[in-house]
TrEMBL record:
It comes from Methylobacterium trifolii. Gene3D superfamilies: Winged helix-like DNA-binding domain superfamily/Winged helix DNA-binding domain. It comes from the Bacteria. This is DUF433 domain-containing protein.
Amino acid sequence: MAARHGNDLVLADLVTANPDVMAGRYVFRNTRVPVEVLFENLADGMSLDEILQEYETLDRHDVVAVLELTAHTLTGGFRAA
């Protein structure tokens, strides 16, 4: 089941997986950029702006929404006060 957040946006609206594209890895919609690239680069210390400069086909709103949905999913919807 896809994670819901905000105005009913779901991860399936932002990422796709197709066996014919990048061997079925999840990619940002309308790109060939695997979602894992975002998390790997953030873990390596790159800023969001640097990632967006490096991967020009990424849409800032999509990337931020994926981060927010992932955080929401991993925290069970709870946020620290």
